[in-house]
Each structure stands twice: as C-alpha cells, then as structure tokens.
C-alpha cells in the first residue's frame, strides 16, 4: 500500500483563543520540501490571500482527473498538447444536514495535435474513463461534473 504524508503547523498568534479571533493561517508541508500557506476560506474568518481546504480539495480532484485523463488519452493513441481546467467547489448541506463540499464541477479544455483527434463523444468517453479511474474521485462522495471542451 502506498502512503502519502503531509505535516501541518499552526501556532496561536493572539493573547486570547476565541472563535472570532483565533488565527486560521497555517503551513502545510508536503513532499519535496514544499510548503503551502493555508487558511480557512474568508467566509469562515480566514485569509483570502491563502489557499483554503475547499480549494485544495477541488485542486486535488482536478489534478488527479487530469493525470488520469492524460494516461487514458495517451493509451488511446491521442496526443495532448495542452490541458487547462477550472474547478468549482460548491458548499452545501449533505444528506446528514452537515456542511460539506457537495459538488465539484471541472471545466477541462484540451488541445490535441497529430492525426487523431477525438470527436465530442470520444472526448466524453475519455473523461468518463478518467473519472472512473481517478484515485481521488473514487475516494469521495461529492458529486463530480465534468464539462469538457477541446480546441483545434
């Protein structure tokens, strides 16, 4: 079994520790000595200049989907020159009435080259296969929409 480790470091920066005033900023340490300066979303008293867990959640799904899509496209004989994706995470109440990321919509745009270009139906099939095999997508209950397009 593969194992992935991150470390989080948070320090109290105020004299008091009340819900309205405690600092939400923290650092996430990931592999390769990378750091991510993270906070709560501004709606939850966080710093808008930092990433937040909801953005990181959407980005992990979008990144995993892209990497899986590229593998599926490559194995299917397509040449992908560019892949860009906007991901939108939507908050709402889940079936238990708890706040959660209830839906994520991916808007991938791809540019293909070479002699073989997928039809819209084939492109949808590539994304369906990517979604079905994406490790992150298979690990969550959030509804995922993929609204893809391609450029020539």
Topology, element by element:
Layout: E1 7-9, E2 26-30, E3 34-38, H1 53-75, E4 79-93, E5 99-113, H2 120-133, E6 143-146, E7 149-151
Parallel strand pairs: 5-6, 5-7
Antiparallel strand pairs: 1-2, 2-3, 4-5
Overview features:
152 residues, alpha/beta, four-stranded mixed beta sheet, three-stranded antiparallel beta sheet, 24% helix
Task: Describe what you observe in this structure.
This protein has 152 residues and is α/β, with parallel strands linked by helices. It has two domains: 7-44, no CATH class; 53-151, GMP Synthetase, Chain A, domain 3 (2-Layer Sandwich). The chain is built from two helices and seven strands, in the order βββαββαββ. A hairpin with a 3-residue loop joins strand 2 and strand 3 (34-38). The model has no long low-confidence stretch (mean pLDDT 95).
Kindly report the average pLDDT value: 95
Structural class: alpha/beta
Q: Evaluate the radius of gyration.
A: 19 Å
Distance between the termini: 40 Å
Number of strands: 7
Low-confidence stretches: none
Shape: elongated
**Within the CATH hierarchy, at the fold level, what is the topology of the largest domain?**
GMP Synthetase, Chain A, domain 3
Helicity, as a percent range? 10-25%
| Broad CATH class of the largest domain | Alpha Beta
Order of helices and strands: EEEHEEHEE
User: How many discrete domains?
Assistant: 2
CATH architecture of the largest domain: 2-Layer Sandwich
Number of helices: 2
């Amino acid at each position: 079994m593969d194992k992935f480790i991150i470390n989080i470091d948070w320090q109290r920066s105020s004299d008091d520790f009340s819900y309205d005033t405690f600092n939400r900023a923290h650092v996430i340490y990931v592999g390769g000595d990378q750091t991510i300066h993270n906070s709560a979303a501004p709606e939850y008293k966080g710093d808008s200049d930092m990433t937040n867990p909801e953005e990181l959640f959407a980005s992990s799904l979008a990144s995993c989907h892209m990497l899986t899509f590229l593998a599926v496209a490559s194995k299917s004989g397509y040449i992908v020159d560019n892949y860009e994706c906007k991901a939108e995470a939507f908050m709402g109440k889940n079936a238990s009435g708890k706040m959660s990321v209830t839906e994520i919509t991916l808007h991938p745009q791809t540019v293909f080259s070479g002699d073989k270009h997928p039809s819209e139906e084939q492109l949808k099939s590539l994304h369906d296969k990517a979604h079905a095999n994406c490790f992150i997508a298979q690990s969550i209950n959030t509804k995922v929409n993929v609204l893809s397009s391609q450029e020539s």
